[in-house]
Recover the amino acids of this structure.
């Protein structure tokens, strides 16, 4: 078990980041902290992909020095996936932040529970 | 290669192009473009469906002509074409049925944005239905989430922004899990195309290597999609999102958005992981238990609700529970029943939301049951439509809900004895609970009371009336001519793997 963690150190860190992010997104009350958690979670996944996609001793798949053997290069797809994923997470983060601004302008708080309480009180009145 | 094989790719790209054009034109033209687009997509899907039925096989369309392990693919057969046709028809009815409320509830300057979101939503739904590539599916899941969030929050009041926030938080947890599951799966198989992943997974499962990563990726994909489609206990975002958004949005969200994710999950069962490997991982048993819990607790929450829109929303939780329970049976018949229920629930739930909007309009805009007394007399066509929807949900013969319940019961009898009894008992309880809250509402809207609210006549509201009648016809069509549809589903599932 311990040996596995040491051997796959990068992946272990990535999974840890993912879990920290997930818990923050789920459990934090503060909206900004939630968004930070979201970014942690996504970054964890990208680190995992990047770590899995890299093989020690190989280089990025750009033909230089005339070497054409596939064994010399890494697979470019994981890096491509990371880039696509980053674009997705940027747009999602922007959307979350804009929602947060809307909520803050309306209720002057970033606490999700407090906002729900205000809304529920408004319903009863 | 026949020209028809291009149509699925055409319809996805047309939707995206229409979304881009709509962002630059006025609301009026965006609305017309959206209507034309949905009709064109429905027509293309219908031609594709006819083509697939005639040729009795499935087709693989490689985007950009890159060959299999590298390129991106679309794959379609009877089931995919049928879903695409059905989704576009339901979307058409939902938008037209809620048009009057839409004018009232959203800022006229933002109207074109509403249609941009609808076009994007349709494109992502079509892509989820047709794609044969896992990462493309992930990207379109995110597009679907973002446009659904926009549809919730476009009616700007505190409730919808808060509901959109809740929806985003739960959805993003779901998509994070899906992405991680996808990465693990890619790591052990080395492929992103669904058919290639399956070949690799079969090999991995046979050798017994990577057992833990495989199970983890199955769990992450399953749980992620379950969160996104609001399976009990992940439904906390649902009532507010459906209850406070504009009526077209609520109808589309409940009947289409969650179904797109469920369809992707079926695809993962059949085409990505393979039925046997999933069954071995015991994911079906977990979905079975949560599906049963959803059927009961969704209905109990609906009974306690005092707001008609939120009640219908909670009823969605129960119906999603039915679909997952069908998956959980772990046999072919259960899958067929679930797919039929996807169609039946989509048709019925959008009908209920649209007709409930007609009833609330006849009650001074109030959604509370006290004010709805006698609303069935003040808006006759909405009352009739709501009654038909309610009876279908309860499971009366002639209506579509009856067929799906009978299919579930038949599947339960075929399933393992351990699952048969709980399924039949929960089906029975759930039908009774459905009857309690739906018939309570029907009785309430037909209480003869003197009311100060004005009646809404058919004249002047022809569009709403016609849409209501179309919904009734669609529902009764599903209920009375179910045999060919069930056969189509069985045939489609056979070509699915």
């Amino acid at each position: 078990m311990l040996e596995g963690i040491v051997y796959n150190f990068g992946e272990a860190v990535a999974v840890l980041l993912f879990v920290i992010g997930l818990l923050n997104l789920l459990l934090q009350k503060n909206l900004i902290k939630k968004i930070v958690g979201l970014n942690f979670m996504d970054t964890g996944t990208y680190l995992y992909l990047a770590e899995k996609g890299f093989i020690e001793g190989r280089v990025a798949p750009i033909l230089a020095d005339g070497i054409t053997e596939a064994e010399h290069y890494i697979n470019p797809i994981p890096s491509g996936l990371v880039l696509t994923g980053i674009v997705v997470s940027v747009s999602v983060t922007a959307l979350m932040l804009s929602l947060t601004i809307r909520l803050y302008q309306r209720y002057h708080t970033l606490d999700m529970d407090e906002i729900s309480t205000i809304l529920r009180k408004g319903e009863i009145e | 290669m026949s020209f028809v094989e291009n149509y699925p790719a055409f319809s996805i790209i047309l939707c995206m192009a229409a979304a881009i054009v709509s962002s630059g034109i006025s609301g009026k033209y965006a609305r017309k473009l959206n209507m034309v687009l949905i009709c064109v997509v429905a027509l293309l899907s219908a031609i594709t469906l006819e083509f697939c039925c005639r040729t009795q096989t499935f087709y693989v369309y490689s985007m950009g002509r890159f060959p299999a392990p590298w390129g991106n693919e679309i794959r379609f057969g009877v089931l995919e074409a049928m879903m695409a046709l059905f989704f576009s028809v339901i979307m058409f009815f939902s938008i037209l049925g809620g048009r009057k409320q839409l004018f009232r509830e959203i800022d006229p300057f933002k109207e074109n944005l509403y249609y941009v979101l609808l076009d994007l939503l349709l494109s992502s739904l079509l892509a989820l239905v047709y794609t044969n590539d896992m990462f493309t599916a992930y990207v379109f899941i995110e597009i679907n989430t973002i446009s659904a969030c926009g549809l919730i929050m476009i009616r700007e009041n505190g409730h919808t922004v808060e509901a959109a926030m809740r929806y985003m938080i739960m959805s993003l947890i779901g998509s994070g899990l899906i992405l991680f599951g996808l990465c693990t799966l890619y790591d052990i198989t080395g492929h992103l195309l669904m058919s290639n992943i399956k070949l690799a997974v079969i090999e991995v499962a046979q050798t017994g290597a990577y057992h833990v990563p495989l199970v983890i990726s199955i769990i992450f994909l399953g749980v992620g999609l379950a969160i996104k489609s609001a399976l009990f206990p992940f439904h906390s975002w649902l009532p507010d999102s459906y209850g406070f958004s504009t009526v077209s949005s609520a109808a589309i969200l409940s009947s289409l958005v969650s179904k797109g994710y469920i369809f992707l999950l079926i695809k993962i069962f059949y085409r990505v992981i393979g039925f046997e490997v999933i069954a071995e991982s015991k994911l079906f048993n977990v979905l079975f238990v949560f599906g049963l819990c959803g059927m009961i607790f969704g209905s109990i929450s609906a009974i306690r609700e005092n707001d008609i829109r939120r009640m219908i929303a909670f009823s969605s939780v129960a119906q999603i529970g039915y679909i997952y329970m069908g998956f959980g049976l772990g046999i072919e018949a259960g899958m067929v029943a679930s797919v039929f229920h996807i169609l039946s629930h989509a048709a019925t739930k959008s009908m209920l939301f649209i007709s409930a909007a007609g009833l609330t309009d006849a009650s001074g805009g109030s959604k509370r049951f006290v004010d709805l007394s006698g609303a069935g007399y003040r808006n006759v066509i909405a009352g009739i439509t709501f009654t038909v929807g309610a009876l279908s949900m309860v499971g009366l013969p002639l209506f579509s809900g009856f067929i799906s319940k009978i299919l579930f019961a038949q599947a339960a009898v075929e399933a393992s004895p351990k699952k048969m009894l709980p399924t039949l008992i929960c089906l029975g309880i759930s039908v009774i609970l459905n009857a309690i809250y739906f018939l309570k509402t029907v009785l309430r809207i037909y209480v003869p009371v003197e009311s100060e609210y004005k009646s809404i006549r058919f004249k002047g509201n022809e569009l709403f009336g016609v849409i209501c009648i179309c919904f009734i016809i669609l529902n009764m069509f599903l209920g009375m001519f179910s045999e060919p549809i069930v056969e189509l589903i069985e045939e489609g599932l056979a070509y699915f793997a």
Residues 13 and 20 of chain A are 10 Å apart (CA to CA).
